[in-house]
């Protein structure tokens, strides 16, 4: 099954790739945010022991709340950190073994993507060193100049059809 590299982060709008790219700074920001959630949970628990003479008897509500936050944020932090790490590894792999390709737009559908307008592109991706394949890509990309039949620059890892599509369309012709 073809896969595409997609990421979330503050550099999405500046990325030359459809779907964004998690760069070094965006990756670290995500890691720091995840650590901040866990530390906030620990701070609530710590506050309970500092603020109350009898933390178990008087501050049990804060303790329960702190441990509840911890039970939620530690697994979520692990999942999000793993997702960020895997996305960054995929981008590095595309940078090292990716081959140039062409992604021809077969269909364009306007969708709602995370409460914003987005686009779903059905693509035929072809190039040297791999069998052409079809895939779809959802992105926050709403340029009206995209049309069915447009050809976009792409990069593909031929071993497993991991791909990224560049945002700038190729000239028609």
| Topology pattern, helix = H, strand = E | EHHHEEEEE
What is the CA-CA span between the terminal residues? 30 Å
Quaternary arrangement of the chains shown? Answer: single chain
Q: How much is the radius of gyration in Å?
A: 22 Å
Tell me about this structure.
- Keywords: Membrane, Transmembrane, Transmembrane helix.
- There is one protein chain.
- With 173 residues, the chain is α+β, with helices and mostly antiparallel strands.
- The protein folds into 2 domains: 84 residues; 72 residues, OB fold (Dihydrolipoamide Acetyltransferase, E2P), CATH 2.40.50.
- It contains 3 helices and 6 strands.
Produce the secondary structure layout.
Elements: E1 3-4, H1 24-51, H2 55-58, H3 60-97, E2 99-113, E3 116-126, E4 133-139, E5 151-157, E6 162-169
Transmembrane segments: 31-50, 62-81
Keywords: Membrane, Transmembrane, Transmembrane helix
Keywords for this entry:
single chain, 173 residues, alpha+beta, OB fold (Dihydrolipoamide Acetyltransferase, E2P), 2 domains, six-stranded mixed β-sheet, 3 helices, disordered N terminus
In short:
The chain crosses the membrane at residues 31-50, 62-81. By secondary structure, this protein is of the alpha+beta class.
